[in-house]
From TrEMBL:
Its main location: membrane. InterPro entries: ABC2_TM, ABC2_TM_bact-type, ABC_2_transport, Nod_factor_ABC_transporter. The lineage of its organism: Bacteria, Bacillati, Actinomycetota, Actinomycetes, Micrococcales. This is Transport permease protein. GO terms for biological process: response to antibiotic. It comes from Galactobacter caseinivorans. Pfam families: ABC2_membrane (PF01061). GO terms for cellular component: ATP-binding cassette (ABC) transporter complex. GO terms for molecular function: ABC-type transporter activity. It comes from the Bacteria. Keywords: Antibiotic resistance, Cell membrane, Membrane, Transmembrane, Transmembrane helix, Transport. Belongs to the ABC-2 integral membrane protein family.
Length: 245
């Protein structure tokens, strides 16, 4: 990641800043110009947790696609450690750890940016740092496991971004409450790590009400998806790198 650290830093600061200005303040001024509120708070406060989780999930998906392909095929970064006692399982876990750290650092910077605009109302927002990593892993790890099986890149990753991540981003209660969608579209949010993470982040950042049982469901869904992805990544890395040592 050191090769593109400047890009990561610009993305971690620039993306939230642009979204805050364009959506939170720009669009928000139109939506709440008459004094109306979203979930009892200004639109910027409402949208900031969703953008934070979406950014982490986007990072998880991004790191689970081309960088994994690069490690196996292009620069073959995973081959070097194989001549040491490091196992394919440990290589997989190292990749996951690196991605997790990237998402948490990005979330810290994101919170700093939106906090400057008054979109953070509670110290509980700090819990959103590990939460964002969990949400990112919930979607990023299954994709990373899939990437570990690809021998030739023929547009699969573009399909993932356009037809999986983008619809989930748009229909996961990111810009408006999920209940505002027709019932036949709400299922998209129910299966989306972005929605589950966003609901919890809103509760942490400004006190959005989430019943205890539903909060538990959100956590369990994210944890289950991340655990499944973790197991699949370890298995597929071991198979791709020539078996388990």
């Amino acid at each position: 990641m050191r090769r593109y650290a400047d890009v990561l830093l610009a993305d971690a600061i620039g993306v939230p800043l642009m979204y805050v200005l364009a959506m939170g303040i720009g669009l928000g001024s139109l939506l709440t110009g008459n004094g109306s509120l979203f979930d009892g708070v200004p639109y910027l406060v409402f949208i900031a947790p969703a953008l934070l989780i979406s950014a982490a999930v986007s990072a998880g998906v991004t790191e689970g696609t081309f960088p994994v392909m690069d490690g196996f095929k292009w620069h073959r970064l995973y081959q070097g450690p194989l001549v040491t006692p490091i196992t394919p399982h440990q290589i997989a876990q190292g990749q996951i750890l690196a991605v997790s750290l990237r998402m948490m650092v990005q979330t810290v910077l994101f919170l700093g940016v939106v906090g400057l605009f008054g979109a953070v109302h509670s110290w509980w927002a700090l819990v959103a740092i590990p939460l964002s990593a969990l949400a990112g892993l919930a979607m990023g790890l299954p994709i990373m496991a899939y990437s570990a099986t690809i021998r030739e890149e023929k547009g699969q990753f573009s399909i993932i971004m356009r037809f999986i991540f983008t619809p989930l981003f748009l229909f996961s209660g990111t810009f408006y409450p999920l209940m505002n969608l027709p019932i036949f579209l709400q299922w998209i949010g129910w299966i989306s790590p972005i929605w589950h993470g966003t609901e919890l982040a809103r509760a942490l950042m400004y006190g959005h009400f989430v019943p205890a049982w539903l909060a538990l469901v959100h956590v369990l869904v994210l944890a289950a998806l991340a655990a499944l992805g973790f197991a699949l990544v370890r298995r597929n890395f071991a198979r791709r790198l020539g078996g388990i040592k």
